[in-house]
Amino acid sequence: MEHILEIIGTVVGILYLWLEYRASIYLWIAGIIMPAVYIFVYYDAGLYADFGINIYYLGAAIYGWMMWKYGAFLRRTILRRKGAGQKGEDTRTEEQKLELPITHMPARYLLPLTAVFIAALLGIAWILINFTDSNVPWLDSFTTALSIAGMWMLARKYVEQWWAWIAVDAVSAGLYIYKGLDFTAGLYALYTIIAIFGYFKWRKMMNKDEGLEIRD
């Protein structure tokens, strides 16, 4: 049963990655299904931090859907109230104007996001070392903590989210080989390669749309 769930999770994960690469809002549907499957896979494998992070992923997927769908509209409303406006003619459809654009992460978020990552890393590692039988507490904690930051950046549609996933996927591929999750290891090896291409894809899409939206 575990291997069947792992195969299902792998298939959904590939679909998720393809949708993320295309910056399609429908990635969040796969983003709900995939963690629901992996909650059982990771628990059986003794990867308790990954088990916990998938509960977080479920909530983050709902938040991400709402942000991608209506984030631009909400930001534009706030900016108008502040007296700011858009420059140039916007030729997009009304649906496109509602969706959140791809942008760089503002520098002011770097320090607090780093602090959240470090706090999550230390906190998760402490829990795994003291309250579980995990034999890979630090690697498990690293990928989990960085995934928390990566999911937040993805929900906000920051292009730098790909940097986090490249690191998470590369480390995870090795970790899952060690834990005997061969299908999942293969998925994350594929993730690592496509994440690199995804970064450049999003950069190109961002440059194309640059100037159409103002970001806070």
Give keywords.
216 residues, mainly alpha, 2 domains, 76% helix, 0% strand, globular
Shape: globular
What is the element string, with H for helices and E for strands?
HHHHHHHH
Count of distinct strands: 0
From the alpha carbons, calculate the radius of gyration and give it in angstroms. Answer: 18 Å
Overall number of domains: 2
Strand content: under 5%
Can you give the helix content as a percent range? over 70%
Structural class: mainly alpha
Give the low-pLDDT segments: 212-216
Report how far apart the termini are. Answer: 47 Å
Total count of helical runs of at least 4 residues: 8
Notes on the protein architecture:
Keywords: Cell membrane, Membrane, Transmembrane, Transmembrane helix, Transport. One of its GO terms (cellular component) is plasma membrane. Required for nicotinamide riboside transport across the inner membrane. It is found in: Cell membrane. This protein has 216 residues and is mainly α. It folds into two domains: 1-99; 100-215, no CATH class. The chain contains eight helices and no strands. The protein has helices spanning 2-21, 27-45, 48-81, 94-98, 110-131, 137-155, 161-178, 182-209. The longest helix is centred in the N-terminal third of the chain and has 34 residues, at 48-81. Residues 212-216 have low confidence and may be disordered.
Secondary structure layout plus pairing:
Elements: H1 2-21, H2 27-45, H3 48-81, H4 94-98, H5 110-131, H6 137-155, H7 161-178, H8 182-209
InterPro entries: NMN_transpt_PnuC
GO cellular component, one term: plasma membrane
Pfam family, one: NMN_transporter
